[in-house]
Amino acid sequence: MARRHVIDPRVRTEVIETYGNTCWLGLPGCTQVGAEDDHIVPYSHGGRDTVANIRRACKHCNSSRQDRVLYGYGARLHVVLVPPCCESDALEYIEARRSQDDPVVCASRLAESMGVERRSSAVGKAVGMAWSGAYRQFATCGAPIDVWLVRVMPSSRRHPRMLDEWLALDYDVRVVDPGFAEAFGRAANIEERKLVRQWYGLHLSQALIDARQQARRARLAALGLRAVADESPSRPVW
Questions:
Q1: What is the per-residue pLDDT across 50-84, written as a single tens digit (0 to 9) for each?
Q2: Are 48 and 87 in contact (CB under 8 A)?
């Protein structure tokens, strides 16, 4: 049985004195109580046991985070939320901003690569699993690359509050909304029209996302993890 990694008590004491003992992550289900030492750059990625790289986290958040990286401390994840049937709008938005080698994870492209029509095929579940697998891989990537994720619903069966998780980890979240009439007009059947209505029922907007991101980034700045005005927070020495 592997020995549990132990932080020097002097480091823990300085972390608490400097940044407090409230959970720094604030993931869905957070208890707020800093019960464990959490590495900003994960220990598995070579993160050090230093005051600069340790913050206190509750047991729930430390377990839920796993090795997912904070934006700018590994991969920089850009999530583009778009209504059903409008993924082409998200791809157009991304193509105008991505670098040539930036990976793009999009369900419609995954379906196309499998040679299937996602909306009418039984392999739709496999497409969703492929998207989730790619997301998990990039979310734990320690390399400083930019990754673009196209997503319709900001939730999944395993992560019902996915948007809250993205904001907690400081992902760059963008809403590309062509408008209800346009999205509804592209829906090919009753099921797709139902999904469009469901998406607009969430009342997602860039203004709402920006307000939540601003509050989260102010918290990260207070924890010494981000400069609020800096889109790419400095990365500590690994």
A1: 999 999 999 999 999 999 999 999 999 999 999 99
A2: no
d(CA 112, CA 58): 41
Please state, in angstroms and rounded to a whole number, the distance separating the CA atoms of residues 40 and 47. 7
Domains and CATH numbers, the chain: 9-66 (no CATH), 76-214 (3.40.50)
Token reading at 210: 């920006």
Q: Residue for token digits 């930036």?
A: 102
**β-pairing, 76-81 with 146-151?**
parallel
The pLDDT of residue 236 is above 60? no
Phi and psi torsions of 38, nearest 5°: -115, 130
Closest residue by Cα to residue 56 from 92, 97, 26, 86: 26
Closest to 205 in 3D by CA, of 161, 183, 174:
174
Residue 31, both tokens: 């208890």
- Do residues 30 and 58 lie in contact, with contact meaning Cβ atoms separated by under 8 Å? yes
Q: Helices 107-114 and 87-95: crossing angle, nearest 10°?
A: 100
Give per-residue burial for 104-131: e unless 16+ CB within 10 Å, then b: bbbbbebbeeeebebbeeeeeeebbebb
